[in-house]
Amino acid sequence: MKNRILFICLFLVSLFGFDFLVFKKLQFFLPNESPWNTNHFFNFLYEYERIRHLPKTKKRIIVVGSSVAYYSIDANKLKQTLQADYHLDVDVFYLAYAGNSPLYVYLLLNWLDPLKPDLVVYPVNFIDYRLHRTYVIFPEGKNESVDESVVVKDALTFGEAPQSLWVFPWETLKEVGSSMDWDIWSRYVISSGFSFYRYKDIYLQNLQNLVQHRFGRNTSYHAYAGAEIPEGISGLGWTGQKFSFYPTEKIKNKGFWVEVTPFLLAGKPCRMEISNGTTTQEFLLSKEGWVRLSLDPKFFDQRKLITAKLERVWFANEATGAYLDYHFDPMGVRLEQTFGLENAKSGIQYEREPRTEDFRYIGMKDEEYRKYFYYRLLEGLEKRPGIGYLVALKLAKEKIREESFRPYFHFRYLKKISDHFRERNLPFLLINNPENPISLEWYEDSRWYKDHLVYLQSLEGGSVHYWDIHRSLPMQGFSDFHHFTYVGMEQMNPIYAKRIGNLFPK
């Protein structure tokens, strides 16, 4: 009997030890090669561990929130502007991920203590309150009267909030465990105790990236992370008619892959001419799918910029299937994810690079942008189910304008967040972030919107600061209702810097 008990004890100790060592520790010592705005929860956890192990040598600003936060503020640009214009030598970090609502920001608060922030910044927008979910669950329902327990349960579903299981299982259990059904509660308990279960849906992505970037073609991905293309490249790696790059040893030895669509071919081969001014080579693209190209060895005799030019382009709004998209950008070929690099980039989980879609609206008149806005974001739901949440958001704003404001669920957590910082006398800046003027039109003049501003203002006091800038960016600075383009982010940077700079004593 004693031997059996000893065996069981050793087994449990080994299990917990292996789980802790491999999934809690070692996976975060590997390079993270997941690009910005992908693998959200792993990137968040990886960044947290990175910051936690950095010695604090200067004041720290930590930006928390959802994708609203990291589409709005560029940490490096903000840091540089604070240094140049306000003589503030600070570090700026993100702890944000897509879909991070006030409940989960609240659960994050105790995680901040080891990081020793001097200021926490939280930009919020309508999407963060998840109010549209009420109308999805109850098409005839109202936020002013819905049963809060139903909304809480919906917020805990893994489709709506996987972070609750992957990032904050124990904290979620303590906070809202009483609202869970038994099967959901049991999954949170297991997730709290075992990291291999907790991270089972997210840790493999980075491992796959590490393997693909070293041994694979790098043709299956969600975000381009290769060399800068002077003519521009889309977030998914699509070129225009021309793209330029420098020769590398990797391209010399292995060539490179491009994806050719049937819409580029349009029933006949497409010529692609590649030249560096002294050497010229022509390819005849005749096969759809990923194609491997090998350059003439003469291109590698000297480091000169090489330019590839396609005979023609195609347009995603004229395509079908997975290639269909409602925009007017001329499309060429898709490049492999790490194109033009000798080694894959790492540690870029919160580094945003400009993409061609960020520059669509430069110089557009308001009426032209308005037509493009409705076409690109709200038309063709039957062909593009991915825009369903945008359609639901529009409907929610149109419905809620007829209701009275009710500070329930996520609004209560905004107050708890504010109280947390006030009690600790830690500076906290809550920002009612800019919203696209077009989507603002749907509800800005309503009693609901005005009362919600009054509520947000009421949270200010002590070390808590509130800033309403919801009309501070023109429509051309938005890619949708609430996400900034790269250009919009650059326009807002000095505005954020001025407000944040003034929070530090001179």
From TrEMBL:
Organism of this sequence: Leptospira bandrabouensis
Protein name: DUF1574 domain-containing protein
Superkingdom of the source species: Bacteria
